[in-house]
Amino acid sequence: MKTFVKIPLIVIMLCYLAHSTVIAQDSKYPYIGIVQTEKLRVMPNRGTNYREIAELKQNDLITVINRVGDWLLIKPPENITCWLSSQFIENGVLTGSNVNVRQGPGLNFPVICQISKGDNITVLKTIDNWVQIAPPDSIQAWVNADFVSYFSSQDSLTSTLQRLEESKDLFNQALIYSKSELSKDNTRSINFTDMFEKFYNIIDNFPDTIYAHKALFELESISNQKTKIEAELIQQERNSRVKELFSMADEFAQYELEKRNPLEIEENQIKLRYMSIIKEFPEKEEAKWAIERMSMVRNKLNEAREIQSQDRRNAFDQAEEFRNAELLKDVSDIDFNAITAKYRSIIVLYPDTPEARRAEERIEDIKQRQSYARIKVNPDQKSASSLYAYEGFLMIDNRQDAEQNLYYIEERGFLHKKQLCLFYSNDPNIKTYLNKKVKVEGLITSFNQDDIPILNIKRIQLK
Question: 56 forms bridges with which residues in the sheet?
């Protein structure tokens, strides 16, 4: 749809009225006037206390003879109804003196004027003893000056009528064109620019005609329709846009919710897309749907996370059971790789979870135990330079009767306790760590009868 810079209609109206006023001020009697009201009463004398003798319509042309106050004396219209008694007419000539001309065939009708003996009479119709005649020259016709505008001088009436006809043709053409454009199904293709130009052309070239005034009101009507259509197009674009955004948000949410791991679902991105609809189109139905979708996504995510949380816990508990069962075997029979594989599957399936982090700790522990197992099975491979670390609660074995105190690191589970390593020490500071969770590092020097490594402790620290 083309854009059009519109000149304010009030400016055009003022120019039109100013132009008409100048012409009226230069007018001389008699001149041609034009009726500017829907109905204009023609009176037999100045004033409103008389019965009208005729009625004029809007845009009727009249000959203005003179002006007295607020009243214009005009040439009597041809539609004035005049009656007189047939007894005063003989061969088309009036035989009576000062005969009353009435508005109807009867003495009860008002007198319009009087005519003199010898006047020629044109008979139009006869009813009983009354005849209707053409309006005589003695009739005076008056109209209110407020409802009549200057049209042209008598001398230029022909050229004025020609201009009126030209402006009428242009107005009708502009009217047909505008109706054709406004009837288009595709409102975007309506050429408002050409429509405005056609009516502005009439105002510009024929400002002294009634069709300039009509063009002005057509412009106002078209301008209002243009505003309405533009508003409808904007609304259509908003409707299309919100539907597109809502469809895209739904597709993205569906794609995310199909992910196996709920932790990988971009909940914030889903929320962001629905929130953009609510912020930009709060009045649309899609905004309500977006709120419902956000609630549904939240519930599904909570449900999926709860299910996954239970699955994680079950998987870790199964790995723990398998580990504990394997660690009860003789060191040469423990399947360290199988234990590691179970914990590694938890890390792969449930990354960035508490269970995954605990599984990583278990894998490190298994690696150390596997290293100890190799030393136990093949003592010649023991490396005095290898430091090993254990985490657990520091305990003291009071049953040992030796020069040095025997300490051990104990792993505590839900229903079990297990010694991880042993070491001897007379350092009194170590006792400050008793019954606390610590990490010890040292060299493996040997194993006891239960295959628990005995360390030469190098370092101890709280955890």
Answer: 40
| Band of pLDDT at residue 27, cut at 50, 70 and 90 | low
Question: Does the reported pTM lie above 0.85?
Answer: no
Rounded to whole angstroms, the Cα distance separating 372 from 452 reads 9
CA 456 from centroid of its chain's CA atoms:
77
- Reported confidence tier of residue 247, pLDDT bands at 50, 70, 90: very high
Q: Is the pLDDT of residue 210 over 90?
A: no
Q: At what angle do helices 354-377 and 336-349 cross, to 10 degrees?
A: 160
Where do runs of H (alpha helix) occur along 330-397?
336-349, 354-377
Domains recognised in the chain with CATH numbers:
81-138 (no CATH), 259-382 (no CATH), 383-462 (2.40.50.140)
Tokens for 340? 């590691």
Token digits for 343?
A: 């914990």
CA 3 – CA 8 distance, rounded (Å) = 15
**Rounded Cα gap, residues 341 and 381, in angstroms:** 26
Instruction: Give which of 99, 176, 108 is closest to 136, Cα–Cα.
Output: 99
Closest residue by Cα to residue 372 from 360, 391, 387, 392: 387
